[in-house]
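Hey, sorry to bother you again with one of my protein questions. I've been puzzling over a protein and I'd love to understand its fold better. Take your time with it, there's no hurry, and the full record follows here:
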Amino acid sequence: MRIEDKIRASLIAAFAPDRLDVVNESHKHAGHSGDDGSGESHFRVVIRAPAFAGQSRLARHRAVHAALGSEIIGRIHALALEIDG
């Protein structure tokens, strides 16, 4: 399973989001630091879920990282997050 699919499945399971966009931006970083040649090193996630309501930005980011777990986080170089409650 592609990392993009794993990210999507993990976030749906954890937050039942109203909106979820998982964008692989690795092609924009080809040849740069952190590019491991896999084509799955840089991602952008836009997520909106009621679960984030009332949480600080830091708490939202921590929740997303926890939901993804070390297996996914450890395989990517960069994760840009846009999180709404």
